[in-house]
Amino acid sequence: MDVFGERCEARREQLGLSQAEVARRAGLDPTQLNHYVRGRHDPPLHGIVRICRVLDLTPGQLLGTEPMPLLPDRDHPRAARLEELQHEARLLDDEQLAVAVRLLRALRQ
Predict the structure, then answer these.
(1) Containing domain of residue 24, as a range?
(2) pLDDT tens, position by position, 75-106
(3) Own/partner long-range contacts of 61-66 (Cβ < 8 Å, ≥24 apart)
(4) Is residue 87 located within the same domain as residue 58?
């Protein structure tokens, strides 16, 4: 298994998803995803992008050129909210993210 496969499986397990569920959410055939993970076939760019969306990763994180993000402890009472916040923050552009940070700081005070 190559870096793609190892990271795909590690993140899938972190998120508590089956390989079949990742494939379904990414619009891929489960056998096709299994071949990508096992290194039998290289995924096309559109497949990588779809898998990244499901696993909440960047292509660089999935392909090993960027570090993997840390997930909060799932047993922590606020883990789900922290994950949700992290996911939403990734969808913002730089300007929106700066506003969100200012808002969070204001809420904290």
Answers:
(1) 3-63
(2) 666 777 777 788 888 888 999 999 999 999 99
(3) 61/7, 62/4, 62/7, 62/8, 62/11, 63/3, 63/4, 63/7, 64/3, 64/4, 64/7
(4) no
Q: Is residue 92 part of a domain?
A: yes
Q: What is the mean pLDDT of residues 6-25?
A: 92
**Alpha carbons 87 and 71: distance in angstroms, whole number:** 11
Query: pTM for this structure?
Result: 0.64
User: Is residue 43 domain-shared with residue 89, that is, in the same domain?
Assistant: no
pLDDT tens-digit map of 27-39: 999 999 999 999 9
Q: What CATH number is attached to the domain comprising 9?
A: 1.10.260.40
For residues 29 and 58, membership in a common domain is answered with yes
